[in-house]
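Methods: example folding runs. The two proteins below were folded one after another, and each record is reproduced exactly as written to the output file, sequence line first and structure-token line second.
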Amino acid sequence: MIFIGIFIFAFLMWRAVLPLKCRPALKAAAGAAAFIAAFKFKIIQIFGGHYFAPDLPREVILLSAWVFVTVFIFMFLMVIGDTFLFGVTCGEALHTLLKTKKCDAKKLLRQHPLLNKVHAAELAAAAVVAVFGMVNGLALPQVRHLTVTSPDLPPEADGKTVAVLTDLHVDNINDRKKMEKIVQLTNELHPDIVCLLGDFSDGVKKRHLDALEALTELRPKYGVYGVVGNHEYYSGYRILTDHFAALGIPLLFNENRLIPRLKLRICGVTDSQAARFNETPSDPEKALACPEKDSWKILLCHRPRGAREHAALGADLQLSGHTHGGMVIGFDRIVAALNDGFVRGSYKVGDMHLEVSSGTCLWNGFPVRIGCRSEILLITLKRPAAGTGPRISTPPSSSSSDSPEIIRGEQEADVLCRDLPSLLNA
């Protein structure tokens, strides 16, 4: 995070602070504000103990997040605005050259007279958009319905439903009250199975553990199954996994559980961060190994990365989160690149269906959504009618046979963005 702070601070000083035409004291104040915004995570760590799980009041966390999100959007708008103004300057220089046969090369290097006014407008717009994005990001999740059709699905599982909750990120913002509302919304769907895909908590204090107890009120017919995410290793892996064991919620560590009545295998792997913390590394081959040949395998994997390997190992359906759906349109392309091209929605990977949830909540470090919503995913498993199969279409941008294909489910039209962290690999 320190290198990100250095980059942000340098960019703000170069493009926004140094071009200011004002008294030195005001310019110094603007530089100080840029420093605070750029090194927000380091400052949070100093006063809150850890930037992933700061022990600070809710209002402080939200204010610091708003400042950082505003700066993030402001930088994006500056790139667009400054490029436009430079294009205008080049156009004026070209017009002068054609008219007078003279070219003032120095003019191309001069500051455009409207630069500071444009920056002020961009900063104001960024502040407003940040408020909108945070309100959207902190809202209760919507329910997204999806049908996954497979000819290999056991008849016993036909019509059964799977609810998916991921990236709950319990903290001072996503508290017990919010967890109870999410559990209530999930129970109202009457799912047969509930799958939890990790990043449960950003902290292991009593209030975090108490909030997670709300998950014991989930009431699926055939049980709750979960896996850990990367944030469990940052927050307190042993404490959290022991707490889930005490709550009676099974977490799968490179293992699987058979639901005999449905002939479904729920398989789960640990996160790729495990080895870094000297914990059990991810072993999908072990997780997907089972004695019977007719069971249908649902793989719970916090990250969508590795989906092609999982498909080759025999997974029928992979459920993942981690990406938060890319959070912001445009930024989603970066998130996708960090996750093997998968960011949110439905993909066909070999013979396997991959479903990447946008997440049920968000991490407090960047709690913004623009172009996607938090979600509770409800999947209906179906066998195809005679002579039919799943409808598959290749996205227009896919030119390689290795590119993931997007499946259009029966109700996927409700998804705001099919193909949109830490997040990132943080």
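Second run, written to the same file directly after the first:
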Amino acid sequence: MTFTFCLEMRQYILKRLLLMIPTLLGVAVLVFLMLRVAPGDIVELKYAGSGTFAPRERETS
């Protein structure tokens, strides 16, 4: 292995790690905005019509 190869690989890895920061920030903002735009409350939609907010018990047969 040559010294230039190690330097190039180190630069490549550093560049990819630094590109993770805006990517993760963008994904977090996108998910946040999608949840805010969704109509209604997520909890209310999940438990609509069940009459209670308690988790449903399994029926045993």
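Comment on the second run: The chain has a mean pLDDT of 83.
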